[in-house]
Design brief:
Helices cover 54% and strands 17% of the residues. By secondary structure, it is of the alpha+beta class. Strand 5 and strand 6 form a beta hairpin. Keywords: Cell inner membrane, Cell membrane, Membrane, Transmembrane, Transmembrane helix, Transport.
Length: 368
């Protein structure tokens, strides 16, 4: 019995670690690509990539851990079925129920971590991410400029182009600024410039050794001025603070608030660790491999159940927010349905029946 538990724990540990790293790499690539796309369009500044990516990963960490241990249990037991190791252990006297306790003992610390992340760390990361985005909205227009890209000011009166910044973002090179004031179009070019903040808090872009061209539309009048120094006041964005969302509130704050959106968010936070336990228990009967049905059929069916489970939880959460379902009922009907599904699958495996009944099997004809 000790050999069985030791072998199971060792393989589950290695499988869950490898699967989690794979999922983490996929999520990082997907989220980083999305953030870089926003930076290239000028929606986000360059220095916000790392911070926003970190907050996104922290928010997705509970779901990534949940999926990782579900796939680890499923793939480990599937391999044991495929390599006939499961047959050996069952012939040694192990029943299907005796697999439950070692697996639950293995996932207990992981589910505890998922609970802490879901109830405390995830709302903290959401709140910090919302606050950071508010700070980005209030930053001056020069901070959102990407090197080598044209950027229009929030008022629409200026267009900036800067070829490159220094590491700190205070020194700029090869600047182009187009502005519209008093019915005239001005174009300013300079080889280098710098930023500074005045005593009253205003930000300025200082251009050195450049030229200013002033053009009156629909005329041929063009005036050229060379300068050694030219100061441009940088506009700052003023935006009203947006109200905090339910995702950014603490769990204690959700318990004290009676709004439907807060109650729905509270049920969702508790649903993540609960669904993890349910899906891991479902992975035990789902790991059975029928040699005649192919090696990957059970894995595809298990992943389909995982996706359906989480999508139905999201639907019920939306219904709670809309008032279609009482907050006292919450997401428990979804958990109960999948617990009953697990009981059904255990019952069929216990009696060595296929997990999905063959409804289209032809009955043998009676002898004449």
């Amino acid at each position: 019995m000790k050999i069985f538990k030791r072998a199971l724990s060792a393989e589950l540990m290695s499988s869950s670690s490898a699967i989690f790293l794979i999922i983490l790499g996929i999520v990082v690539a997907q989220r980083a690509g999305n953030i870089v796309r926003q930076v290239s369009k000028g929606i986000l500044p360059n220095d916000a990539i790392g911070t926003i990516l970190t907050f996104s990963l922290v928010k997705l960490m509970p779901m990534m851990l949940s999926l990782a241990i579900f796939l680890a249990v499923l793939l480990t037991l599937t391999r044991w079925h495929r390599d006939s190791e499961m047959v050996i252990w069952m012939n040694a006297g192990l029943s299907l129920r005796q697999w439950v306790v070692p697996i639950l003992r293995f996932i207990f610390p992981i589910v505890l971590i998922i609970s802490l992340l879901s109830l405390f760390v995830m709302p903290w990361a959401t709140e910090k991410a919302e606050g950071y985005r508010e700070q980005l909205k209030k930053r001056d227009e020069l901070s959102s400029i990407s090197p080598g890209a044209f950027k229009e000011s929030s008022s629409g009166e200026r267009i900036y182009f800067i070829e490159s910044f220094d590491k700190l973002g205070y020194e700029v090179k090869n600047i182009f600024v187009q502005s519209r004031q008093h019915g005239k179009t001005g174009i300013i070019t300079a080889n280098r410039g710098s930023r500074y903040k005045a005593e009253n808090g205003d930000n300025f872009l200082v251009l050195h050794n450049g030229r200013r061209y002033e053009v009156i539309p629909n005329t041929l009048d063009v005036s050229t001025t060379e300068f050694e120094r030219y100061d441009i006041r940088i506009e700052t964005k003023e935006s009203a603070p947006e109200p905090g969302t339910a995702q950014g509130k603490t769990t204690l704050g959700l318990m004290q608030d009676a709004s439907l959106s807060d109650q729905a968010e509270l049920h969702w936070r508790f649903a993540i660790p609960i669904s993890t336990i349910v899906m891991v228990l479902l992975a035990i009967p789902l790991s059975f491999v029928d040699p005649r049905a192919g090696r990957s059929l059970n894995i595809m069916f298990a992943i389909l159940i995982f996706i359906v489970y989480n999508n139905i939880l999201s639907i019920f959460q939306a219904w709670i927010t809309q008032g279609k379902i009482s907050s006292w009922v919450g997401l428990w009907p979804v958990h109960l349905c999948f617990i009953l599904l697990g009981w059904y699958l255990y019952h069929r495996r216990k009696h060595l029946k296929p997990l999905i009944p063959d409804l289209f099997k032809r009955k043998p004809k009676a002898a004449a």
